[in-house]
Amino acid sequence: MAALSKSWATKSGLPLTAILFWAAAALLPLAGSIWEDPSFDYYMFMGQSMLIYAIAVLGLNLLIGFNGQISLGHSAFFAIGAYTAAILMNFGGWPYWSTLPMAGVICFGAGFLFGFPALKLEGHYLALATFTLAIAVPQLLKYKAIAGWTGGVGGLLLEKPDPPWDLPLSADQWLYYVCLVTAMVMFWIVYNLLRGRSGRAMMAIRDHAMAAGTMGIDTALYKTVTFGISAGITGVAGALSAITIAFVAPDSFTLQLAISFLVGLVVGGMASLPGCLIGGVFIVLVQNSAQSISDWMKVSFSLRYDVPAWAIYGVLLLLLMYLLPTGLAGGAASLRGALARLTASGATPREPAVSPNQQKEPSR
Amino acid sequence: MIGRRYVVLGTAAAAVLPALAARPGLAQKKYGPGVTDTEIKIGQTMPYSGNASAYGVAGRAQAAYFRMINDAGGINGRKINFISLDDGYSPPKTVELARQLVERDQVLFLFYPLGTQTNTAIHKYMNQKKVPQLFVATGASKWGDPQHFPWTIGWAPDYHTEGLIYAKHILANHKDGKIAILRQNDDAGNDYLDGVKEGFGEEYSRLVIADATYEVTDPTVDSQILQLKNSGANIFIDITTPKFAAQAIKKAAEVGWKPIHYLVSIAASIGAVLRPAGFDNAKGLITAQYAKDVTDPRWANAPDVVEWRAFMDKWNPTANQMEGSNVTGYASAYTLVQVLKACGDDLTRENVMRQATSLKNLEVPLLLPGITISTSPTNYRPIRSVILARFEDEHWVPFGDLLTRGKD
Amino acid sequence: MELFIQQIVAGLTSGAIYACVALGLVMIYVSTDHINFAQGEMAMFATYLAWALIDAGVPYWGAFGATVLIAFVGGLFIQRVLLKPLETAPVLSLVVCFIALLSIFNALAGTIWSYTIKQFPSPFPPKDIFGDGLVSVQQLGVVAVTLIMLGILTVFFRYTTLGLAMRAAAQNAASARLMGVRVSWMLALGWGLAASIGGIAGMLVAPIVFLDPNMMTGILVYGFAGALVGGIANPIGAVAGGFIVGVLENLVGSYVIGNELKLTFALIVVVGVLLLKPAGLFGQVIVRRV
């Protein structure tokens, strides 16, 4: 049985762990119906947030981890996606699920356009340009000329959708499924993209752009399209966030958000798909934990001052950079590798290619 | 025929029964979520990080106040468990934390959550879930709407009213003035502006000849001050936050522009704004106050200020006493404690809301004399009055009458 | 017309602030080939240290000198301890490091010294030059000190052996090592100097904009823009760029797009310059051989 399912998995290309993970995630809401906890809807909401951030980090990972570019400004695309969904729902009366593909398309366009100037920028320069983008976006969203559409400083309030067809689910359980399905689709798209020629081209550009160019890869096209896709994916996450929070406002999309994405990516592990999920969970949980650590420190060490949560956050980041530069996923992979080596040494040792004794003994 | 015995019994009963009914111990104990015989759990979201972290001072002052109350035995024997979480002024985070507090931690209500956008994000949710969003910490005027949002109530006078008061004052005293406005490009700025616009009515376009904005990220407002001076205006409505107010006052004086200068209350602290700006430059400034400026020498010996200082020294020693949020935090915490005391043993969300909306002329320490808190099921604005004050000789001198917002 | 001139002058004075910050950015770039996102917060933190010293009774110039020294050591420390292990790490790890430093300094300053604005004393007399309040001695002082620092740095980099060694270490560490340059210490020196310059910039700027933990965030963006416009590898260019950005920002804000889109304008400047003339107006184009 195990062999059967394993072979099916490898045929479709998916590792078994991935399938098990998604299946478990899908079954999670049903646990709520069994386990009657009044705060279960809250956990569903947390699950939605984690999935949304995982998708956002996925978009960023495609750009940074798999294509070697850099962006400190993905909060801008997240914002465009969110506002697209909000405006379409509010003023266009669009049903919430239809705003997702639209947000993706519009953000793809925005990312593609930004990709052109990004072509000429490398490393620090691109970081700088996107850093400025992240800082400029909240002010742009408040601009009074477009305030009629964007709700200006006050933002836009949205309606939280209900489950359709009278399904026996709460609104939060339903939205969890919406986020889950969207995440599965996004991961599937990226997974297939990476396995094919495009993926190899992207990674070739990342590893050695000049060589890739000489091999005939149109680096300019690939880089701009990758920027577009990356922005589109993050934009879809933004649209989901608008739907689940039911509110968009300029202050939701600051530089802090862009930094969170980056941190989630680095912590989860660059160029690692499971890393994106870890990153999403990290973003949601750690800020709360930083505060708990701060409170704990103040009490345990009888400190006069509070230890600010963001300082702890910064220190955590630094530690991660030194101890786990490949992120948690990378760390897990190294661990697996180390374990494999340990167990392999107990198996039959491989024959050396030429044994020192064989030369002396002629074949009989 | 009613014998004497019955009369005596009847009298005795008449004397005893009301006393029995009034004793809280015998009244039925009704608890909402988060309440036990020994504890009342309260939640709050505050920006302790990010751009708006300056406002987190209020949360710390309130936490200190509740520690003091707990140390003295709590409220009717119950200690306050005050859970204040950092939302970084980000609405999605506020939504998450509000849900955590309400659904996971099961708090009785949210107290003094701060920020207009952040409170807007949870406005509908709190009312749907029927959880009090008590004494919201923003000056936006939309919180006083009992008809649509009966579970949300503000505390401080709103910005809209303040802007309106300035406009009316100008109309009454400087009818033919030319007005310039500087405002921060955010909710507060917009709210004030709306109040000013309403106050001027149709005269707005005639009277206001210059209107400049700035962002929190701008290094200085020097350029804006130059623009406004150059417009030839002789009245200046200054809608800024402390740092930019200080810059504006200083620069206006430096370039020799001496308009009639109205400064919004959020930036009117003597210690935090006027001293850095220069007392000479700040002469003649007009503002609307509802709370005492504790850095003002005239209140130095007022009993409530003395008590406040003692509180700060003992319970909140690391805070900077010049920050106005320590005053509003203290006064709002006091208000809450009175509400909870009035609840007695009926600590349900409905009763908390009921008590909070039946305050009659409650005297709150650190509010200006004559300003009290009153609420009713149709009046969701606890503090409706302000007094105009002019800055002379290094302190604010009130003038005129108490100005009260009319009935909604 | 008078307003126009006034706006230009105001732009030059805010440009002086940007130029000062840009100088620190250039310093880091020239000596380490990195763009330090935490430069603004480090400058702010150093200024707070100065303020704390003055508040404790140390006279102004003593506090000034002490701060420059402390900042230097601090910058050195950061490079040696925090950044050295990441010398061979990808750009992204370094960027994350800078962002982490940014968060730490900002949060610490806010906690230790609160968010109320503080006055910072100025060594210049509170007079103004033309009598109409347009340009104060303080603002001219900022310009003067910036130009002096610029002069010292230019001479240092171009005409001294140490300066040459630092530039070599940044541009080609391997070759520099072969020439006997102690690359790691050059980088550390670069950071130390940049931190000191940042501290000086902060102490010059604080009397004008008032000291608070978020003092530098906006300035940093415009400082970046200025450094890029002038040429991020070129101190003279960066200073010129700072002034240009200051004037443009003021003029555009007053006449063209209004104050509400100034950051967007900065973004356009940054992107535009990076696209059209990445080496900046005064920079040299570096041709990389394959």
Secondary-structure map with pairings?
The complex is a heterotrimer of chains A (364), B (408) and C (290).
Chain A: H1 2-12, H2 16-34, H3 40-64, H4 74-91, H5 96-119, H6 123-141, H7 147-150, E1 156-157, H8 171-195, H9 197-207, H10 209-214, H11 219-245, E2 247-248, H12 255-268, H13 273-300, H14 309-323, H15 327-344
Helix pairs in contact in A: 2-8, 3-8, 3-11, 3-12, 3-13, 4-5, 4-6, 4-11, 5-11, 8-9, 9-11, 12-13, 12-15, 13-14
Chain B: H1 4-22, E1 30-31, E2 39-46, H2 56-71, E3 79-86, H3 91-104, E4 109-111, H4 116-129, E5 133-136, E6 152-154, H5 159-173, E7 179-184, H6 187-200, H7 204-207, E8 208-214, H8 222-230, E9 235-239, H9 242-254, E10 260-263, H10 270-277, E11 286-289, H11 303-315, H12 325-343, E12 346-347, H13 349-356, E13 385-392, E14 395-404
Parallel strand pairs in B: 1-12, 2-3, 2-4, 4-5, 5-6, 7-8, 7-9, 9-10
Antiparallel strand pairs in B: 11-13, 13-14
Chain C: H1 2-32, H2 39-55, H3 60-83, H4 91-113, H5 137-159, H6 161-171, H7 173-178, H8 183-209, H9 215-230, H10 235-256, H11 262-276
Helix pairs in contact in C: 1-5, 1-6, 1-8, 1-9, 1-10, 2-3, 2-4, 2-8, 2-9, 3-8, 5-6, 5-8, 6-8, 9-10, 9-11
Characterize the structure shown.
The complex is a heterotrimer of chains A (364), B (408) and C (290). Chain A is globular, with a radius of gyration of 24 Å. Chain A has 364 residues and is mainly α. Chain A has helices at 2-12, 16-34, 40-64, 74-91, 96-119, 123-141, 147-150, 171-195, 197-207, 209-214, 219-245, 255-268, 273-300, 309-323, 327-344; strands spanning 156-157, 247-248. Chain B contains 13 helices and 14 strands. Mean pLDDT of chain B is 87; it is low at 18-26. Chain C has one domain (2-276): Orthogonal Bundle (ABC transporter involved in vitamin B12 uptake, BtuC), CATH 1.10.3470. Chain C is 74% helix and 0% strand. Chain C starts with a helix and ends in a 14-residue tail after the last helix. The mean pLDDT of chain C is 84. Chains in contact: A-B, A-C, B-C. Chains B and C meet through strand 8, helix 8, helix 9 and helix 10 of B and helix 1, helix 8, helix 9 and helix 10 of C.
